[in-house]
Specification:
Blueprint lengths: L1 H9 L1 H20 L1 H29 L1 H23 L13 E2 L5 E5 L2 E11 L5 E6 L12 E3 L4 E8 L4 E8 L4 E4 L5 E5 L8 E6 L10 E4 L10 E11 L4 E8 L8 E7 L2 H12 L3
Antiparallel strand pairs: 1-2, 2-3, 3-4, 3-14, 4-7, 5-6, 5-14, 6-7, 8-9, 8-11, 9-10, 10-13, 11-12, 12-13
Helix pairs in contact: 2-3
């Protein structure tokens, strides 16, 4: 209380001046319609600006919730795309409902695939083998060797899992190659040279295949990824003089420098497929 009194005494003249100014403005607004209209218009403008700033602040702090909502909506749309893509087999396929977990993680299942959303918490693009850490683990249904994709294309493969996190080996890795196909169905393999994260190479493409700049390249059913996931687009072609085949240079469809959300894909039929193929290899 003592500090308040000292404050008033110290700034008494300024407080009195401001008080009289406010009184004058109110009297002018009430007794003169023209000036009153101008004052009200100015007051409304100031109020509008204040409400706009307040709304901007509310939107900013709600961005995380909005991002989570969008990624879940994308998962639902991927589910719808899978349904249309497999329309001919709908009558023989069990369609399961969307399941929500306690932390608002959306799990979408159709046919043999389950899509789980996850947020990237760590990422690298400058190593020979780049890894991505996501905030989902075994407690969320994530397991080793599950493919990981983004809203724009392929990302990598899960290689290590803890209860609440998982490590993903990025396709920007010299350790692995991707089975890929062109729009006409021609397939080959895509590798990364360990240098530029914006360039991947599709090797051994026959010269008679018609290819144009910006043609899209997709995953095949031979890979651990779901089929027809975008890998990248062609921006350069070169003939290998050793075998007279072409090399296609691609811009990855996923921006690995700015990746924030991903989908971890579980193939419910993969274990059975791998078991069958392994047993077949053992036959002499």
């Amino acid at each position: 209380m003592r500090n308040f009194i000292l404050f008033v005494r110290r700034f008494f003249n300024l407080i009195l001046f401001l008080g009289l100014e406010i009184v004058c403005i109110i009297l002018i607004a009430r007794t003169n319609s023209l000036q009153g209209t101008d004052i009200m218009s100015s007051a409304n403008t100031v109020s509008g600006l204040m409400y706009k700033k307040q709304n901007d602040v509310v939107i900013y702090f709600g961005l995380r919730r909005m991002n989570d909502s969008l990624i879940n909506e994308n998962a639902r749309l991927r589910q719808a795309m899978a349904i249309y893509h497999n329309l001919d087999t709908l009558k023989d396929t069990a369609v399961r409902r969307i399941v929500k977990t306690s932390d608002s993680t959306r799990v979408v299942q159709y046919n043999e695939y389950i899509y789980r959303t996850a947020k990237v918490v760590n990422n690298s693009v400058s190593s020979g083998n780049n890894y991505i850490t996501i905030n989902r683990g075994s407690a969320d249904g994530i397991a080793k060797n599950m493919p990981v994709i983004s809203s724009t294309g392929v990302v990598g493969r899960v290689v290590n899992v803890s209860a609440h996190f998982a490590s993903v080996l990025s396709v920007l890795s010299v350790k692995q190659q991707l089975s890929a196909k062109l729009k006409d169905g021609t397939f080959s393999y895509i590798t990364w040279d360990g240098d530029n994260p914006d360039v991947m190479v599709m090797k051994d493409v026959p010269q008679q295949i018609k290819i144009h700049m910006n043609d899209s390249v997709f995953t095949t059913s031979f890979s651990f990824f779901p089929s027809d996931i975008l890998i990248g687009t062609v921006f350069k072609m070169k003939v290998n003089t050793k075998n007279n085949l072409r090399q296609l240079y691609l811009h990855p469809s996923t921006n690995f420098r700015n990746i924030q959300y991903v989908y971890v894909v579980e193939n419910k039929m993969m274990a059975e497929r791998v078991k069958l193929e392994d047993s077949t290899k053992k036959i002499k």
